[in-house]
Amino acid sequence: MSSTETPLTARTVASTQSEMTEIVLPNDTNTLGNLLGGRLMHFIDLTGAIAAYRHARTYIVTAAMDHIDFIQPVHLGDLVTLRSSVNRAFNTSVEVGVKAWVEHPQTGELRHVASAYLVFVAIDKTGHRVRVPAVLPETADEQRRYADALIRREHREAEAARHKAERSATAAMESTAEVQSK
Asked: What pTM did the predictor assign?
């Protein structure tokens, strides 16, 4: 840390939480009257970004949607409530968990309809990565999510290394084939 940098103050999971509610309108649905999956992903990204921003207190960009489960359809006229919070902070990135719930407008019945994990990277005005504060998990559930986030990160890194090796092997084969064809 340089002499001009200030130490980052760790933040609680509760301080990052975000909630957003949307009503499903005809423009948001497919021909069956169900919410489009891409539209729900957009809502998830927005809600997750707010939690990441609250944690980092700087510009953030979506780096990955690590996992998403569409559990049940969401119908025209339903109220969709999304809740997000930071699960864990790494050097310059945070993992955010988002859950989506549907409330039937007449009965008030609640159904869990989707869950996702996203990774956001903190950047400055010029697009360079910046450090983020640590997360302080307080409850047993927050501690479980904190530990699980590290496992998911390790899986993401292993998958990225595998893809990089595949790309290198493909490039080498293409280069060899090109030389042989001359």
From this structure: 0.85
